[in-house]
């Protein structure tokens, strides 16, 4: 055999070896790629579930915030009315209910008008008419 024939045979053998190596290497890459795609699908599913839970929590938080706001706006007036009813009607059940939740039924109910006057910057005058707080005469 001549040198060019040997060189040609060696090149062909090297090509076959490289092809075999690339074939098996590519199979390994395809397996890893398949596992990666499965894992990405799992992560997307988990993200969807997480977002759903987050939306549910936000809805619950909105309900809580609305209830707190309602409690702060209406609660004191309801308590004051319950105190008044319990005192005027001598209703022991309402008194016991108030005591159960830490409210003293004997405390005077805060007048809503006094709170409104403070917010407006006016104070009730001695004669029963309202005057601005800054312009009160001694």
Secondary structure layout:
Blueprint: H1 3-89, H2 92-100, H3 112-120, E1 122-124, E2 130-132
Antiparallel strand pairs: 1-2
How would you describe the overall organization of this protein?
With 138 residues, this protein is mainly alpha-helical. The chain has one domain. It is built from three helices and two strands; from the N terminus they run αααββ. A hairpin with a 5-residue loop joins strand 1 and strand 2. The C terminus is likely disordered.
Side-by-side strand order of the widest sheet: 1-2
The major beta sheet can be summarized as: 2 strands, antiparallel
How many helix segments? 3
- Structural domain count: 1
The computed structural class is mainly alpha
Q: How much is the average pLDDT?
A: 79
Regarding quaternary structure, how should these chains be classified? single chain
Provide the gyration radius in Å.
41 Å
What is the percent of helical residues?
Answer: over 70%
Element pattern in H and E: HHHEE
Sequence stretches where pLDDT stays below 50 over 5 or more residues: 112-138
Q: What spatial form do the alpha-carbon principal axes imply?
A: rod-shaped
Percent of residues in β-strands: under 5%
Number of strands: 2
> Ends: how far apart?
130 Å
């Amino acid at each position: 055999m001549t040198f060019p024939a040997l060189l040609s045979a060696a090149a062909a053998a090297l090509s076959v070896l490289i092809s075999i190596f690339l074939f098996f290497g590519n199979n390994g890459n395809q397996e890893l790629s398949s596992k990666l795609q499965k894992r990405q699908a799992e992560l997307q599913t988990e993200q969807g579930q997480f977002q759903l839970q987050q939306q549910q929590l936000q809805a619950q938080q909105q309900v809580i915030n609305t209830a707190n706001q309602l409690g702060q706006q209406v609660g004191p007036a309801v308590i004051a009315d319950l105190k008044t009813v319990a005192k005027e009607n001598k209703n022991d059940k309402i008194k016991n209910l108030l005591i159960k939740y830490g409210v003293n039924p004997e405390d005077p109910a805060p007048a809503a008008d006094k709170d409104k006057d403070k917010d407006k910057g006016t104070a009730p005058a001695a004669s029963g008419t309202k005057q601005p707080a800054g312009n009160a005469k001694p």
